[in-house]
Here is the input.
Amino acid sequence: MATTAELFEEPFVADEYIERLVWRTPGGGSRGGSEAFDPKRLLEEFVNHIQELQIMDERIQRKVEKLEQQCQKEAKEFAKKVQELQKSNQIKEAADVIQKLHLIAQELPFDRFSEVKSKIASKYHDLECQLIQEFTSAQRRGEISRMREVAAVLLHFKGYSHCIDVYIKQCQEGAYMRNDIFEDAAILCQRVNKQVGDIFSNPEAVLAKLIQNVFEIKLQSFVKDQLEECRKSDAEQYLKSLYDLYTRTTSLSSKLMEFNLGTDKQTFLSKLIKSIFISYLENYIEVEIGYLKSRSAMILQRYYDSKNHQKRSIGTGGIQDLKERIRQRTNLPLGPSIDTHGETFLSQEVVVNLLQETKQAFERCHRLSDPSDLPRNAFRIFTILVEFLCIEHIDYALETGLAGIPSSDSRNANLYFLDVVQQANTIFHLFDKQFNDHLMPLISSSPKLSECLQKKKEIIEQMEMKLDTGIDRTLNCMIGQMKHILAAEQKKTDFKPEDENNVLIQYTNACVKVCVYVRKQVEKIKNSMDGKNVDTVLMELGVRFHRLIYEHLQQYSYSCMGGMLAICDVAEYRKCAKDFKIPMVLHLFDTLHALCNLLVVAPDNLKQVCSGEQLASLDKNILHSFVQLRADYRSARLARHFS
Here is the structure.
């Protein structure tokens, strides 16, 4: 077939074509050729060639038909496009004409030209509807250029705003398919922002109208559905939903700030948010306060119920309350103390729950309060925290703990108030942290700051006063316990044994038991307090401990061996004093140890010992009082040496 195609030359001449074919065929040449003429072979070649030409003709014919069909199709499409363009142009022309006629008709008197004006108005309306319908169809087809053309024509018609409304409505079709309406709205606005400038001459106004439509219809309806359901029945869910919805709405607003929405987009978006939430924000703080009170009361009641405890009424007047308050501030035995069975009535879980509820309330208050109301609202939340955490829980536990402290002359008293002190200190730290972290930022630049600080100061001072009272009475009880131990265990014969040569102990049993008790109390104090409070309390206990031992030793008469045993006892007491790690307390016991030397020193050396470094600064009456405790004091020799 390729060979056949090569025989064609332009211009085509049939005789020449056959001649070329004959010459190319072996045996087809003239008699003078190199090869003899072969008519059969030539005939066969002609027959084959004719078949090839027929096949070629069929192929070319099919190709021609295909090209003709394609040409006809393109011709129809071109004709249609030309027709549409012509039609489009006639619309523009008609729009221009009807627009001018409409303007002219406005000037014509109605009584004479009412029919004409009516026809023009009808045509104006029909054409306007046709243009809007064309815009709608073009939007559905996604033909941006056609939308732009129609919008440009409609710009001078009254129905231009309706064209924008149609655009906004159709933009939202199928836009809210996810579970997150706020994310859907953000994606919709981003998509329209990229497109709107290619369609309208005032894209910022169209985008702003879309956003307004989204907020006032879609979001407002969604927010209402979410909040109205739980507004009256579930305050907790209502507040959480309100906070979440408001936060997500303001977050969406922040994303929309990047778009061009006109002059003051901040004010525009703020008004939209306000229009959605104003009915909920007006009374927000009342709902917050009511919920926080009921929730806090429930947390406390649930705790006391778990302890099977009925809260006592504190400070309500009456003889019993008067007795209790006198007993708390003195050591007068005005009846038995309340047995708390070791319960402090302080719960870290309760405290954490109250602080968590208050923290969430502060966060909601910060987000949902008007800036001018924020400090006042935050202060109201703080007063509820003070009421339920500080007064109803901590103060109640302190009062109950004070009432549970036994009198100083009680035997084998269990002292749980230090446990109250320990837990109260921990709670104070948590309370103070929330005050600084969550309340201060809300009131720092308002007059409410000084009011909050003053209230906090008053509360802490009241608590510290009760803690100080309880610690003081607890220390008295400790000293009372030591007195009981000494009274029960210390024998007169300990320091004046019948057989001076047969004393086998290093220190008395009373000393051993007192030291064991003191060490336990020192450890408990260290575990219950922190910072300088530990040193302050240990110093007070150490001073009282020293006074007790000093006065205790003054009750006995000492033989030489008994004096040695007293020195050993004081040495053990001094080891306890070292555990206090308070220099002043250790100094007191060092001095007491030196005084006890006066019980055993030889009479000739008394003056020398009294003038020594540790005793020289003491009053002479103190020195004399210890010398008088010696069993041999009344001997003329001793009295002469000490006079």
